[in-house]
Design goal:
132 residues, mainly beta, 5-stranded antiparallel beta sheet, 4-stranded antiparallel beta sheet, 56% strand, elongated
Length: 132
């Protein structure tokens, strides 16, 4: 069974291991006596998948997908973003190029034996998504 874990973005930093109250608020135990609801900009769920280094992949993570090429020892690196795909009813990686969006499921990544590495997230590392 997939482990349910969440993190939040409060506009300044990622807060790990949170309890979501809604898409934009979390519940935090305050002063050891009572629960307090805190507003955040985003709550993101763990996909249940780890990258090639064993790091948890969450919604909003920016990942480097490594595709083998026909040339021996040469790899192609592409930047993708982890999202929840409504059409596929599960977590996917999205890549936008020339106004087209491509999606890969984690099942397709495993079937093609592709390596995936978390290199940042959309909140702190948006510059990684800029077209070169």
């Amino acid at each position: 069974m997939k482990e349910l874990k969440f993190r939040a973005w409060d506009g300044k930093e990622i807060i790990d291991d949170v309890v979501p109250a809604s898409e934009t608020s979390i519940i935090e135990f305050n002063d050891g006596y009572e629960w307090q609801e805190i507003e955040v900009e985003a709550v993101e769920q763990y996909t249940g998948i780890k990258d090639k280094n064993g790091k948890d992949i969450y919604e909003g993570d920016i990942v480097d997908v490594i595709f083998p090429t026909k040339l021996r020892g040469v790899e192609e690196h592409q930047i993708w973003v982890s999202r929840f795909g409504v059409k596929r009813a599960g977590f996917v990686l999205n890549r936008e190029t020339n106004a087209r969006i491509f999606s890969l499921t984690f099942g397709e990544i495993n079937a093609k034996n592709l390596a995936v590495e978390v290199i940042g997230n959309i909140h702190e590392n948006a510059d990684l998504l800029e077209e070169e």
